[in-house]
Amino acid sequence: MVAFYEGVLGFTPSRLKSGLYAEFHHLGTRLVLYSVPPENLINPIKRSYTSPGLSICLQVTELETLLQQISGAIAHSPVLSTVTIGTIMNQSHGREVHLSDPEGNRLILYQPIQKTATPSA
């Protein structure tokens, strides 16, 4: 997970506790990942990309550039072999793509529609 969020998405780890906790900072965003011990889970069901659950939505400025970076990282890392990337979709709010992180959480990367300035009278 750390390799994915750091190396692929560019988040800088600021605190790490191997296998338990990782805190990242990137462009004013703070992202925290932590592992809940199995004994603390009420219903320890491993969720997959296709099941309901956690979705992380990130706004990006250059969707294609980021997807190329992610694809390159996946191709060079066996740790990232479980990451899947969907196709770019045009939505009312902009363009987006769904992918999974190494733990199966759904990520939604979206690039908002560029608003064009209207000429003033």
What percentage of the residues does DSSP assign to strands (E)? 25-35%
Number of domains: 1
Span between N and C termini? 52 Å
Number of strands: 7
**Mean pLDDT across residues:** 77
Class by SSE composition: alpha+beta
Give me the CATH fold name.
2,3-Dihydroxybiphenyl 1,2-Dioxygenase, domain 1
Strand order of the largest sheet: 4-7-6-5
Helix content: 10-25%
Shape call: globular
CATH level 1 class label: Alpha Beta
**Given the structure, what is the number of helices?**
2
> CATH architecture, please?
Roll
Q: What is the H/E string? A: HEEEEHEEE
Low-confidence stretches: 41-52
Largest sheet: 4 strands, mixed
Task: Tell me what you see in this structure.
There is one protein chain. The chain is 17% helix and 33% strand. By secondary structure, the chain is an alpha+beta fold. It has a single domain (2-37, 48-112), classed as 2,3-Dihydroxybiphenyl 1,2-Dioxygenase, domain 1. The protein has a 4-stranded mixed beta sheet with strand order 4-7-6-5, with no helix packed on it. The protein has a 3-stranded antiparallel beta sheet with strand order 1-2-3, covered by helices on one side. A hairpin with a 3-residue loop joins strand 1 (12-17) and strand 2 (21-26).
Write a brief structural summary:
By secondary structure, this protein is an alpha+beta fold. The chain has helices at 2-8, 63-75; strands at residues 12-17, 21-26, 29-34, 55-59, 89-91, 94-100, 106-112. The protein is 17% helix and 33% strand.
